[in-house]
Amino acid sequence: MKLYKATITPKSNFATPLKGDTIFGQLCWVIRYVYGNNKLDELLSDYSSTPFMIVSDAFAKDYLPKPSLPSFLLGEDSDKKKENRKKIWLSINDLQDGNFTNAKRSDEIGYKIKKESIVKNSINYKSFKTGAEGFDPYAEDEISLSNSLDIYFCLNEAVFNLEDLKESLKALGEIGYGKNATIGKGRFEAKDTKEIKLQKRVSTTFMALSPLSLQNIKVKEVYYSVFTRFGKHGGDLANNSPFKKPILLADTSAVLLFDEEKELDFIGSAITSHSKHTETIHQGYSILLPIKEITHE
Fold this sequence. Notes:
With 297 residues, the protein is α+β, with helices and mostly antiparallel strands. It has six helices and 15 strands. The chain has a five-stranded antiparallel sheet with strand order 10-13-9-15-14. The protein has a four-stranded antiparallel sheet with strand order 2-7-1-8. Helix 1 crosses helix 6.
């Protein structure tokens, strides 16, 4: 599989965080609409053993998150815990070389993200009133991104190539990503999609670029934060039993240590049986970035 990076420029606010597993699901719907249901069924037919595409989270342009490791393994000053927590971004070269103390704050790299709750009022479309008392407010979170972001893709080009990805991303940016896309949220422009050549491909230590399933993975050690996915169906399936069962995952930037050096593009598994719609598949895979070997010495 080949590794690609796409740079996207937000054109509106987002109501759904740009997590890899969600982006994958949205792209599957786009593939269905653009190429047809038969094409999607073909791509997903052996997804459990041979994924056609694995998607990362969206990250600050030209940066990746700091690994989910204890402070002493990152070489950080233990007396500066508050400051260290704000330093969350590393260049890909610093990550691979193990220069974790070069991590930067969002303001240092010009990355601006603003989260706010937007208060709205629900409407009964039968009566065209706003509730029994005439006022029925609720709040929805929105994310404002003023900078470009990078998303990484691992593609099986035998079945889904770069041009397929570009067309799918273009369509998703126009349709809108995530919640409230029908009212203009989640719009973006995808550009500058290119292959990435890593300076280091073999290691005993890897970092995950999206949430992943650790089920049946054999590792020496793993460091991670827990992420629970409370998923909902989109597209046509949202009209009938829209809610999925919760899924427990290792969050983005999890670090996996192996007994011996390996060359791995990705790890994880496909997740099924979490919905009444039996054909539903969730991305439990993650792209892996080889980083400098971690030791406890």
